Every structure is written in C-alpha cells, then in structure tokens.
Amino acid sequence: MILSGKIQLFFLCLLLLGNAGHAQNLFNTENSKKFAHYLLNTRQYNLAAIEYERILNISPPDAEITSNLIKTYRLGKICEGSFQNIKLLGAENFFSNDTVASEFLNLSLTCNCCYQKSDFEKAIFSLPETKQAFYRLGYYFFNHEEDSLFTFSKNNQNLLSASYPSVFNNIGAMENYKGKSPALAMALSAIVPGSGKAYSGLWGDALMSFIFVSSNAWLSYRGFNKKGTKSASGWIFGGLSAGFYIGNIWGSGKAARTYNQIEYDKLYHEAQNSIYNHF
Questions:
Q1: Could you give the CA distance from residue 139 to residue 108 in angstroms, rounded to a whole number?
Q2: What pLDDT is stored for residue 44 in this prediction?
Q3: What b-and-e string marks burial along 262-275, b requiring 16 or more CB atoms within 10 Å of the CB?
Q4: Which of 28, 165, 257, 266 has its CA 20 to 30 Å from the CA of residue 13?
C-alpha cells in the first residue's frame, strides 16, 4: 500500500511538472510573436502593442517586431507615449532597415505631435531618394508649412509626379486654388443685397438678405410717404433696413471666406488621404 502510494505521488509530480513546462512554453518568444500577430491582424491594436512591447523587453532586439510595434501604434492611432517607448526600446538602432524607418516616418506623419525632427532625419537618411522626397513633402504638409510645401513640390516634381502622381496633383490643386474674392462679394451685395452671398453659393441666405433689406426699405418708404419725416414707422423700418444692408455686406465677405475655407479643406483632406494611401 505504501509503495503504491509512492508510485502515485511520483506520477502526479511528473504530471504537474509537465503541465508547468507546457504553460511556460505557451509564453515563449515564438508563441508570443504569433499571438501578437493575431492581435494585429484582428485589429486589436492596443493589446497588440502591449504584446509587442513585452516581446522586445524579454528578447533580443528584433527589426521585424520593432516594425510591427510601430505599425501597431500607427494603425491604432496610439500617439501618446509611443515615441518615448520607441526610443526606450531602441528602435532607432534599426533605422538603417527600410521597413522600420518607413514605419517610423509613417507614424510620425500620422501623429504629427510627439517626434523630434532629429529622429525624423535619422529615419529618412537611409531611404532611397524617391522615398525621402515623399516623406519630406509629408513633413511640410502635416506641419502646415505651405510655402515650403509648394516650393519643395516644384523643386522635386520629376520624382514626385513619377512615383506619387496623386499626391503631387493634390498638392498642386491646393497651390493653384484661388477661391472667391471677399471684396467682390461685398461689392456685389452693396449693389444688390444678397448677391454677394449668391456668388459664394449661399442662395438661401442671399434670398433672405434681399427680402429683409428690400421689405424694410419699402415699409420705411411707405411710412415716410404717408407722414413725412414725422413717421415713426419710417424711421424704425429705415433703421432696420440700414442695419440689414450693412450686415448683408459684411456677411457676404464672411460667406466668401467661409466658402474658401471649406473648399480648401476639401483639397487638403484629399491630399491627406492620398499621402495615407502610400503608407
């Protein structure tokens, strides 16, 4: 009986040790990589980032894992703290790797908040000339340095138009956009109330401006015509008409500026999307 109990205890210990070894094996580097890739592919970006960070903390530096971590930050729009983590994990040691460098630059442009220009320059240095041109254009674009953006685009038009035609054309459309003239809109509304707003595409506002100004002017005229300068209604409606008239002129200038901003923002977002499509 005692011998039988000892044999049972021996096999139980073997079983427990085997299970412990199996559980430990589940968290080895290779299985962790598979799990992190699964999280990335199923768009669980926050969890994938945590797993990739863990792998880089417990295993030797790895260009592929570093690249996937940065890609995860970008796809999950995890900007806060990501650049500090990248630096702590030594990602810049892999900037000579095209994939790592490109992913870092993609993240930099996507976040446009937390990176240092020196890191941007380190990453861009090892890339081919065409890619360097693309990322420098992106740097100016996302930093809203429009003068530098348009100058750089012109100076590198052969490279950009050949390799990134949609980006080049969208930047050109931004540069060539003229928009509506606020001064002309105001002048038109000074002549015919509301016409400046119609010029800016606001036909409903234009009609309302015309009705308010003209109807109050007519009521003012009617009051003065009946009672002369002693007409209270003449002065009241005349004041309202003058107020609407001045407001209509000012509003027409504002309408033109608003129209221009909306149209320019459309061009900006088209250019932004064309840049993102090349990540």
A1: 9
A2: 96
A3: eeeeebbebbbebb
A4: 28
